[in-house]
Amino acid sequence: MSQVLVVNCGSSSLKFAIMDGSGAAPILEGIADRLGSEHSNITFKFNGQKVEQPLHEHDHKGAVTAIKQWIDDHQDLNIQLVGIGHRVVHGGETFSQSVLIDEKVLQGIEDCSNFAPLHNPAHVKGINEAQALFGDLPHVAVFDTAFHQTMEADQYLYPIPMRLYREHHFRKYGFHGTSYRYISAKLASLNENFGSHNTLIAHLGNGASVCAVRAGLSVDTSMGITPLEGLMMGTRSGSLDPSLLSFISDAEGISMKQALDILNKESGLKGISEISNDCRTIETAQAAGDDRAELALNMFASKAAKHLASVATNLHSVDHLVFTGGIGENSPVLRDKICERLRMMGIRLDQNLNQTCPRGEISQLSSDSSSAKIWVIPTNEELLIAQDTLSLIDKH
Predict the structure, then answer these.
(1) Per the annotation, does 8 bind a ligand?
(2) Labelling 279: which of 128, 160, 248, 330 has CA 20 to 30 A away?
């Protein structure tokens, strides 16, 4: 069976997986860490084993070279790569769907770098290196922002002078689109009617957002021009009074950029709990009676519920509420806290089903009296990237 190499480049890391698009477990997966440092390494997970090794070249080229070498060294597995799928964070208004990569597409990704300065340049590096080593294979870009290009202007525009949109394209773009598209399709596969229903999806992890989906299309989402807008997250503050930036800058004697770094890297669960940005660690502390942990979890749930209720105003009804992402899939504590705050919408969680929800499986958690079906649906962005890549290769 044909396989795809899925690549997700960050500024100092590169995640990868080899998949056949069927939903089966990856043949190979792993991550290259600390790129740009002499301590860079790469981890391969294969056949239940994990092997870590240093990189000879400490950059994206070194990571892609190591992956190519691993494939060459395992000829017995008969890996038949037919293409490479690249996750790209920001596609701006240029890209509303996944595309085969050519010079024009690559330039378009670069042009969006001002909106995602840490991510898009890294994506370009990864694509260039992969093209150099796997040059004969087609490459596909799958954009986090593409799914939200169906939002109407009254949802994606900011209430700022229109010239700033016309001249600079300042607007809400939204993220986690690959996850939302996967969840929408998976929900539709459970029942032929579900695809036409109104759905709220909460993608909750270290990065967190919500989305309102009508008949499979995004109509509103919480993240904005960057992933900082919206919910409180692992280390991000989410939405707040913009004037706070200048107050922090003046009070701390730091630049606006440094103040923005605080909102991106030192806030959210980490900032409030003063313990960690990891929800599991905070829940353990909360269970032991830590008041800071309790406050952090309550704030996270409150912000999530508020944004779910907010985006729901763009739906005619709420037929489904789906939890996904690392926290959404694995934290009955936060699912309970969020649903409790949505009781005014008729949302009712079955406590027993919530507590006994099996890890990694699709589960329905709503009580018989709930106005909407409540689900846990594990997301799989890598699988969707592999499927998009195979589909575009078949078409062309």
Answers:
(1) yes
(2) 248
